[in-house]
Amino acid sequence: MELIQELDWSILNWIAEHMHNGVLDVVMISFTAIGEIGLVWILLSLWKILSKDLRKRKEGILMIVAILVGVLIANVILKNTVCRSRPCWLNETVDLLIKNPKDYSFPSGHTMASAISATVMCSLNFKRNWWTIPLALAISFSRLYLYVHFPSDVLAAAIMGVIVGLSCVAVYRRFVVPKVRMRAMYICVKDMPRAIAFYEGLLDKKVSKRDDVYSVFKLMGMRFGLFAYEKKNEPHEFGSNCLPSIELCDKELLLHKIEGQEVCFPLTQIGSNWVVEIVDSEGNHVEITAPV
Fold first, then answer.
1. With b meaning 16 or more CB within 10 Å and e meaning fewer, what string describes 232-259?
2. Residue 107: exposure state from Cβ atoms within 10 A (0-12, 13-18, ≥19)
3. Domain positions in the chain
């Protein structure tokens, strides 16, 4: 413990003596402000909850629940059990740039909420949410820069936050996300503008995503697609070209499902999904996907 305490003071004082300047002062105060009570992460969660997309709403609720678990662990249980004094309480010679906190130091609540949120969001979709990692790191570092936490407070909170985040995602995938669901169907077309015009009239609905190769109508939680197969040099016979698309929760389950099946389109990463096509018992092609 003495070694950890020595390292804490050494790192903290080095930051205070060598990194402070007027610009960073403003930046770090801002990062701490948006991380107060997990503000930025709660706003992100609420934005998802208010979305029309059911999956985003579930993800927003997951984030709120995960943050509340973190608050319970960090602010309610550990802070009042460990009762560690903050560095700014012990070294009163430091001029604080923010209001002196009243609660205990270990662990860092800002860091815990940030680590939990970044872990949840990146676990669900890393490609779209990678930016939450540098944001979480910046909020966490601001607590050291402003001399209100020891490095070990921040490190411990980050580790616990990752564990809590991964645990909540695991529970979410186990009990909330269906392992198998019918997500979409598409048909092949030769003339995309002509097909879009026809189906906009037939469905009395504007196309949701217009593209030369693959256009999409969103219908009651399902995606109905128009695929310009000739642009991808794929042969098709009209009249029997309707392809059901089934989404699985992960690649491991996908590989299990296609084991021993006749594969007519090899497993390929397309965008943010793994895609494979198999032939069913009747000779129909079935597309199966899983998130990357």
1. eeeebeeeeeebebbbbbebeebeebbe
2. buried
3. 2-175, 180-291
Rounded to whole angstroms, how far apart are CA atoms 252 and 233?
30
φ/ψ (deg, to 5) at 213: -100, -45
**Class of 2-175 in CATH:** mainly alpha
Q: Which helix (H) or strand (E) holds 291?
A: strand 285-291
**Is it true that 2-175 and 180-291 share their CATH fold?**
no
CA–CA distance, 198 with 155 (Å, rounded to integer): 58
Task: Indicate the length of the chain as a whole number.
Answer: 292
What is the CATH code of the structural domain delimited by 180-291?
3.10.180.10
Q: Assign 52 to helix, strand or coil.
A: coil
Residues 278, 153: Cα–Cα separation, whole Å: 52
* CB neighbour class for 110 (10 Å; exposed up to 12, middle 13-18, buried from 19): buried
Would you give per-residue pLDDT tens digits along the chain (292 residues)?
788 888 999 999 999 899 989 999 999 999 999 998 889 999 999 999 998 877 888 889 999 999 999 999 999 999 999 999 999 999 888 888 999 999 999 999 999 999 999 999 999 989 889 999 999 999 999 999 999 999 999 999 999 999 999 999 999 988 887 777 777 888 788 889 998 988 888 777 899 999 999 999 987 778 888 888 888 887 776 555 567 788 888 898 899 889 988 998 999 998 888 999 988 876 778 888 998 8
Structural tokens at position 96: 């604080």
Full-model pTM: 0.69
Q: What share of residues in the chain are helix, strand, coil (percent, to 5)?
A: 55, 20, 25
DSSP element (H, E) containing 101: none
